[in-house]
Design a protein that fits this description.
The chain is of the alpha+beta class. The protein has 20 helices and 19 strands. This is PD-(D/E)XK nuclease superfamily protein.
Length: 560
């Protein structure tokens, strides 16, 4: 790696950030307000099906952390904030800055690619840089992320009856909302709610949250900071319903055809004390507990470096805009609020987090076994420790034996944390995941060599007769959130590697016509490998130029 060239590119990026900090005519507090409401404006445009807005909003998602970090300083710690309307100049500033910061986010990503060995950098004259990927397999992680999109759509289809009932109820709710919404102070949104409106959006919030990544991360009674995980989720459901309700009133007001700026209508702030009060009343919990939960969803001066350093990371649902006020980010509540909360729970309660990890395996194993419910399949509902001469060799997370075909499937279940686009986190996850998985494959493969049926039966606590028809073993590495990585390292072919939503998709979209379901799944996972898909898609990648103010970054994929 050419460190001097990388350092030079990073220096230009820092100069850009310094320049951008001087572009807003007001104070930093108002800059953050403007940035958030323009992000929400584009979110609403996406909801209405604006494809161009969707493309631009994607860059905003890459750049939000960089943009907010520029303006998030000690001045946010003031008693109140200025209420001001959006205008064309303010809109253009926020839109351009978020888009530009999205491009800077891409530059940060390619710099991380260089540092992790995925690419190399070349410097030309006039501050022009080329990033060469030299036939590295790129985009594997993006292919795996699409599995969650499938899972989201699948859960929606599975609950189509609920959506049909929501659609019928929505007509009455929207009629009621028309009578209760109005323009406040010439620009902003005001409304009065009802029990029926609140109930509608609470139910909708609950359904949407159940489809988000991380919702099932821990058993309900798992404690973080002395509070059960279930309580955090219940509170998030209520708070998300406030956001959905506000956006619902905005769309209702816009439907009236009155000429009004939707960016102004979307702006949604509250006194923190009011949110604490509403939440404590709704959940019948102490206000101290309510405030503690709200803090888990809030971007503030204490955690901004942690969250704003991530490119395309989870957008915060709340932003602390003064000592007493919180600004809603509807983009944050719409996207991945559970992931933001999980990140903050881990940051604040690391010891609780570490203790809770073991409980995940039980959930994962139970969900896996539910796919093999027929009596022909023997399963062991606990981890199996493998010993050699009294010394622990490794353990097996999942065990499924097919009595009819004599096929034994052994599973390594890995429930890892998502890493968004952070190459630092990716490098750590990749190193741990591949090291542990490859060691497990090697250990189990060697242990199985020359094992008789009777020896296997004894090792797993069965009678000899139970394994008399044993024919073969199949090894599976199943990750909850990822299983493959971009780069040159390929999965050990002795095992089938896959991720949980991918496995669900394959078993849902394909009908097994063979007698051996385990063997069929093993081969199907190998055939469906995202590494192979990435190889194919990489051939169609087009070179790309990131045009910045005083420099250019040219992306050269060079895939044959």
């Amino acid at each position: 790696m050419d460190n001097s060239t990388v350092n030079e590119l990073e220096a230009l990026l820092q100069e850009d950030l310094s320049r951008l900090s001087k572009t807003w005519p007001g104070n930093n507090q108002t800059a953050i307000i403007q940035l958030i409401r323009i992000m929400d404006y584009y979110l609403l445009s996406r909801i209405f099906g604006d494809k161009e807005a969707a493309k631009r909003h994607k860059y905003h998602c890459y750049g939000w952390g960089i943009a907010l970090n520029i303006f998030f300083d000690e001045k946010i710690d003031s008693e109140s904030f200025s209420l001001f309307p959006n205008n064309d100049d303010f809109f253009m500033w926020a839109d351009s800055l978020l888009y530009y910061c999205g491009q800077l986010g891409l530059v940060k990503l390619v710099i991380d690619h260089i540092k992790t060995g995925l690419g190399r950098i070349e410097k030309h004259n006039n501050n022009k840089f080329t990033i060469h990927y030299d036939n590295k397999i790129i985009g594997v992680e993006g292919i795996e992320i699409k599995e969650f999109f499938w899972l989201n759509n699948y859960l929606t289809q599975m609950n189509s009856n609920y959506y049909d009932s929501i659609a019928v109820l929505a007509k009455d709710i929207h009629e009621s909302m028309k009578e209760n919404v109005y323009i406040w102070r010439n620009y902003f949104l005001g409304y009065n709610t009802t029990h029926e409106i609140d109930r509608f959006y609470l139910d909708l919030s609950k359904f949407e949250l159940q489809k988000t990544i991380g919702f099932d991360s821990f058993p309900p009674n798992t404690l973080f900071g002395g509070l059960p995980f279930e309580l955090y989720l219940d509170a998030l459901c209520i708070l998300k319903s406030f956001s959905l309700r506000h956006v619902g009133f905005v769309t209702n007001q816009l439907a009236k055809g009155i000429k009004v700026d939707s960016a102004n209508l979307l702006q949604h702030f509250m006194l923190k004390s009011d949110i604490v009060f509403y939440l404590s009343q709704a959940m019948k919990i102490d206000s101290v507990i309510a405030e503690k939960i709200i803090d888990m969803l809030t971007l503030n001066d204490l955690n901004k470096d942690h969250f704003c350093s991530k490119v395309d990371g989870a957008i915060p649902p709340f932003i602390e805009i003064s000592r007493h006020h919180i600004l809603f980010s509807h983009s944050g509540f719409k996207a991945q609020p559970v992931l933001f909360m999980l990140n903050e729970l881990r940051r604040r309660y690391q010891k609780d987090w570490d203790r809770a990890l073991d409980k995940r395996e039980e959930i994962f194993r139970a969900e896996l076994y539910s796919l093999f419910s027929e009596e022909r399949f023997i399963k062991i509902n606990r981890p199996i420790v493998i010993k050699v001469l009294g010394k622990v060799l490794t353990d097996i997370d999942g065990f499924i034996y097919d009595k009819e075909t004599g096929t034994l499937a052994l599973f390594q279940l890995k429930w890892q944390e998502p890493f968004a686009n952070s190459m630092v986190e990716r490098r750590s996850r990749k190193k741990n995941f591949e090291k542990e998985s490859n060691h497990w494959i090697m250990s189990i493969s060697n242990w199985l060599v020359n094992k008789s049926n009777d020896e296997l039966a004894a090792s797993f606590g069965f009678k000899n007769n139970d394994f008399k028809d044993y024919t073969r073993s199949l090894l599976f590495i199943i990750g909850r959130n990822f299983a493959h990585f971009s780069g040159d390292d390929f999965p050990d072919e002795r095992a089938a590697w896959g991720m949980w939503p991918q496995l669900l998709r394959l078993m849902n979209e394909n009908i097994c016509t063979e007698d051996n379901l385990l063997s069929w799944l093993f081969n199907l996972l190998k055939k469906d490998s995202p590494v192979e898909k990435a190889k194919e898609s990489n051939r169609n990648l087009k070179d790309h130029i990131i045009e910045l103010k005083d420099y250019q970054v040219f992306i050269n994929w060079a895939h044959e």
